[in-house]
């Protein structure tokens, strides 16, 4: 970042993301994401 004269990100998180299946992931509330996923176990 320094070489490119760009500020380094303040956190490693990209923030809230919406995935291809429409489920939203909020890094501040990962448990809500896990509860919303329909597939819980691969057999």
Task: Give a short synopsis of this structure.
This protein has 43 residues and is α+β, with helices and mostly antiparallel strands. It has one domain (11-43).
Descriptors:
43 residues, alpha+beta, two-stranded antiparallel sheet, 1 helix, 2 strands, 9% strand, elongated
Helix content: 10-25%
Q: Radius of gyration, Cα only, in angstroms? A: 16 Å
Shape: elongated
The count of β-strands is 2
> How much beta, percentage-wise?
5-15%
The helix/strand class is: alpha+beta
Q: Helix count, per DSSP?
A: 1
Tally the structural domains.
Answer: 1
- Spell the H/E element sequence: EEH
| Order of strands, widest sheet | 1-2
Low-confidence stretches: none
Q: Residue-averaged pLDDT, rounded?
A: 86
Separation of the first and last Cα atoms: 44 Å
- Outline the biggest β-sheet: 2 strands, antiparallel
Q: Please state the oligomeric state of the protein chains shown.
A: single chain
């Amino acid at each position: 970042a320094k070489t490119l004269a760009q500020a380094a990100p303040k956190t490693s998180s990209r923030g809230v993301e919406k995935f291809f299946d429409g489920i939203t992931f909020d890094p501040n509330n990962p448990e809500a994401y896990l509860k919303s996923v329909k597939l819980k176990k691969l057999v």
